[in-house]
Amino acid sequence: MYQYVTHFTINDLLFMAQGAGITLILTIASGVLGTIFGFLAGWARSTSSRILYYTFGAYIDVIRSIPLIIQFVLFNSFMAIAGYPLNPFVSGLITLSIYISGYVAEVVKAGIESVPETTRMAARGLGMTYLHEFFYIVLPIGTRTVFPSWVGLMLGLMKDTSLIAVLGATPPELLRASQIIITRIQQPLSILLGAGAFYFAMCHLLTKFSALYEMRWAKAQEV
Amino acid sequence: MIEIKGVHKSFGDNAVLRGVDLTVTKGEVLCLIGASGSGKSTLLLCINALESIQKGKIFVDNIDVHAKETPKSHLRRKLGIVFQQYNAFPHLTARENVALAPRLVLKKSKKEAAELAENHLNYVGLADKMHVYPSQLSGGQQQRLAIARALAMQPDYMLLDEVTSALDPELVGEVLDTLRMLAEEGMTMIAVTHEIPFAREAADRIAFFHEGVIHEIGEPDEFLNHPQKARTQEFLRCIL
């Protein structure tokens, strides 16, 4: 006989942990895809082509100006109306990737532009081709400059994944899972505190990891 | 041999080069002097196609530098260039700075490139700085690193763009010593410089660049002691 339980159980904790796992997977998957798209868009905007500059400029402008929650609903509905209904996770993942790529693109462009023109000239003066110059000079120098901004984007992305709840994806990610438990046991503060702790743990891990990288670069160049 | 024939170049309305004619033969050291912003640096950049030209021709060993079909990367191996700002690659150690282009462009193995880099760093007196990053080097050391980096490509010509201008006065000497050494070994050089004593002693010819053309050119003694043209005399009076 099913018993209606109104206190926090071990199953609730597992439910939240599962939610955290989904949040993490969504973040990593959309972070990787969004960084790849964003890298290409940012690179395209840094080239001398005016067409690429304005095309991707418009793309970035639109993406960054519309609330993510609207993008989720619009994209999902559009695909359904067009006759290609998607699994809410897939639809959400694509939307998140496109969304974050708009921000990554600007960071990438800033990174490329942070490399002094004279440094690039020195590379070309040594007979390096565009690709040599890009991959061995521009990329490593630019990455060090904008890496912290990129980490910031990824931290924001992790928290933005909670908006996928509007698509009703199951099993739910961390925030939606917490809300479901709250409706049952009516203890919003403690549950949200717990959810916050989960988010913090995951973000903190990413921050620590990136700090490790930055320290390695700094150490190498220490006086 | 570098042959510059009637070269014109402007940035918008600003005509920087207005018909430059100049020939530099193998083994010659030519010092180019002239007021700041007169186009001397632009001329150097045009010689290795880092800047385009609008009229005229430049030949390096009979290769038309600005012809569409000339592979720029290939051409630039012949022409080492060193800039006023040292432009060391900040994310690489001194040895990696020097070894990178030989490895990528000349397709040397990692080991060969490292050896080449060590030899050239030795040559410019940076043997003890192999594994040091540019941020830990003084201006003079960074500039010598830039010279070693250009030399490691085994160029036939060196283009030097005010390589001592950004240096503290006490560091100028060490860089000029390196250049003197190069000149004595017969390296062909075009050096834009304000160091008249260096030009007097190391140059085969000195050229005065003024209003977009080579205004006057001659052997150091003749040029510095008995300049023919009024504008050259005035310029030399100001800087000597």
List keywords for this structure.
heterodimer, A: about 220 residues, mainly alpha, MetI-like fold, 8 helices, B: about 240 residues, alpha/beta, Rossmann fold, 4-stranded antiparallel β-sheet, globular
Strand content of chain B: 25-35%
Largest β-sheet summary of chain B: 6 strands, mixed
User: Which oligomeric state applies?
Assistant: heterodimer
- CATH superfamily placement of chain A: MetI-like
Supply the number of structural domains of chain B.
1
Strand order of the largest sheet of chain B: 6-7-8-3-9-10
- What are the secondary-structure elements of chain B, in order, as H or E? EEEHEEHEHHHEHEHEEHH
CATH architecture of chain B: 3-Layer(aba) Sandwich
Evaluate the radius of gyration of chain B: 18 Å
CA-CA gap between termini of chain B: 31 Å
Count of individual helical segments of chain A: 8
Question: Concise description?
Answer:
The complex is a heterodimer of chains A (223) and B (240). Chain A is mainly α and 223 residues long. Helices cover 80% and strands 0% of the residues of chain A.
Helix and strand arrangement:
The complex is a heterodimer of chains A (223) and B (240).
Chain A: H1 10-46, H2 50-65, H3 68-81, H4 88-113, H5 117-125, H6 130-160, H7 174-185, H8 188-220
Chain B: E1 2-11, E2 14-24, E3 29-33, H1 40-47, E4 55-60, E5 63-64, H2 72-76, E6 79-82, H3 94-104, H4 110-123, H5 139-151, E7 157-161, H6 169-184, E8 188-192, H7 196-202, E9 205-210, E10 213-218, H8 220-225, H9 230-239
Parallel strand pairs in B: 3-8, 3-9, 6-7, 7-8
Antiparallel strand pairs in B: 1-2, 1-4, 4-5, 9-10
Helix pairs in contact in B: 3-4, 3-5, 4-5, 5-6
Could you please describe the fold and organization of this structure?
The complex is a heterodimer of chains A (223) and B (240). By secondary structure, chain A is mostly helical. Chain A has a single domain, classed as MetI-like fold. Chain A has helices at 10-46, 50-65, 68-81, 88-113, 117-125, 130-160, 174-185, 188-220. The longest helix of chain A has 37 residues, at 10-46. The N and C termini of chain A lie far apart (71 Å). Chain B has 240 residues and is α/β, with parallel strands linked by helices. In chain B, strands 6-7-8-3-9-10 form a six-stranded mixed sheet, sandwiched between helices. Chain B has a four-stranded antiparallel sheet with strand order 2-1-4-5, covered by helices on one side. The two termini of chain B are 31 Å apart. Chains A and B meet through helix 5 and helix 6 of A and helix 2, strand 6, helix 3 and helix 5 of B.
